[in-house]
Amino acid sequence: MTQSDDFTNGWIAAASCVALAFALIQFVLVSKVQVSNSSTSSTLLNAQALDDRKVHMLSWVSTEIANGAKSFLFAEYSICAVFIVVFGLIIFGLISWGQKSAQDGALTALAFVLGAVTSMASGYIGMMVAVYGNVRTTVAAQRGLSAGTGAVSMTPRGWSYAFNTAFRSGGVMGFALSGLGLLVLFIILSIYKTMYDQDDWDVMMEIISGYGLGGSSIAMFGRVGGGIYTKAADVGADLVGKVENNIPEDDPRNPATIADNVGDNVGDVAGMGADLFGSFAESTCAALVLASQSPDLKEAGWGALMFPLLVSGFGIFVCLISSFLATNIKQVRSADDVELALKLQLVATTVLMVPVCYALSVSFLPKKFDIDGVTSGGVSATNIDAFVCVISGCIGGLVIGLITEYYTSFSYTPTREVSDSCRTGAATNIIYGMSLGYKSAIIPVLVLAVIIWVSFKLCDLYGVALAACGMLSTLATGLTIDGYGPVCDNAGGIAEMAELQPEVREVTDTLDAAGNTTAAIGKGFAIGSAALVSLALYGAFVVRLGDEYTSQGVNVFEPLVFSFLLIGAMLPYWFSAMTMKSVGLAAMEMVEEVKRQFAENPALLVEGSGERPDYDSCIQISTRASLKEMVAPAALVMLTPLLAGTFFGVKAVFGLLTGGLVSGVQMAISMSNSGGAWDNAKKWIEKSGRKGTDDHKAAVVGDTVGDPFKDTSGPALNILMKLSAII
Question: Domain coordinates of the chain in residue numbers?
Fold first, then answer.
């Protein structure tokens, strides 16, 4: 059974609009938390009041963070705008020349520009909502404290109030980005469809892939630039503040603390948003390109070709329904409920997607269809086979996420072992953390191997692309949880800088600790989907080359292929070396600046002196360093496949992409999880009441080393895999 074009288009458009409307509703709910000293602005009974000075400090700190984030994104996007124009012209020229059609070149360039602009808009929206929601999460945590003559504690209703504020702030980014990305792609497809006959839909889908290229290109700048920014500030603030001078994290006396909080937004929010938008665009484009090679799917109608978009669209409905579990049905009432509520989101969305994907497969795909791929003679598949491919990706993503949580949460043994190793110093902490990262790659890689094998056997490379779409079908929830973490992190920093009660910081730290783990889970999803997307794009490239390569395959023993296989496997190390060194250089400059301010104004180290450091100089250091250092890694990723193909031919590109994928996915997982474990090992020591001890100092060193692992190099390897393949 297949559906009409209008029916298909209606569902896709409805899902996009519902996502955007729900994001707006979430924003309105967050905005109801007023930053004021009026007790009537709180919905809680018996809420603690804020004095005028603290209200002023809250507003001032949040404004400084917002202004710093906006100024960085403006500078970064100015560079991106130049890149979009130049690279768009290159695409127009190359496609027009290769296809002998100026129309094809112009439409591909237009798709590229729209993908890039959508990615920039997604990052900006996420960042602005995060800096809007962070101070409101602080206020919600403060108002949730019991007022009275007894001990101050967080009320059950207060936990719900604070958690919901942070969760809904993340939800604005999650649903706005998912809806915007789907809507723009749907509009492009609808317009381009009027320009090409059904027989030329394969050409049209290749043109549409420019949308994925645009999204991933901007994600590279966002991930690398934002990652260098945030970690330069974080490392500088930690080394001079916490380690050398025993100043608490986010203390207003530390000159780098505003830059550190700005970095949480430009790296973890804008960067991750652009990254996952790129994954969505590329996986969908890869599936569309491969589906368009099948005469059976084209004959079945527009609905069969749009199946990947329908999976994403109905995923939005599933994520929307599941979000009420956390905010309304099973509310957070205590510290122990926070991590459970976030984990429940991941499980619930995956479980609900199974029947939804079955219904979509049966309704929109033909019972049997032949699909061309790298298997000689193609593959004969059924709609149930396609359903299994989608669900294998969806369930596989959940398994990878839960394994990531096991290795990075201080609720489990691995991270507690890392914490315990700090008793003998920083060296053993580093050894344990790196060992954990390597070990944590085993099960996720095995899961990816099973997904690829099952999907490939059932539907060839089209199945792999569908598995990637399945893994990203719950994108709205993944982005919601990922945006939640930096909001809570910033909320704690604002509470510290505004000198609120210590209990407020304890609440935000509890919310943030769960956010650290869920951020690691989000990175696991991003890495897993990047591996599948990269393979699907690689496959689309091979299929496009024709029978010469699809029938014979790629012989790894050919000297050229094997040589570039080694070079491709080396690229993630080269890329990581560049990004890690960039963080180190920027951090050294930051450390010197913080030391200079402490030396010239010793009163900064005196608690209660009222002296305010020069925050702007640290913000400028991070901004300048990140914009300068992000160019070389991006050039490495973009130019390597182009140069290899131009000078050595397509077989060199085969080896390059294969090596980069196999090496990159394992390195990305290990680096991200090592960094996450070091961070939460430090938090476990702090929670155990050992802050300021030698154990804690060793943990801070490990956390500092892990910062570029988990927030710069590790996550950026996703884009190396995807961007190399789509170029």
Answer: 5-32+52-726
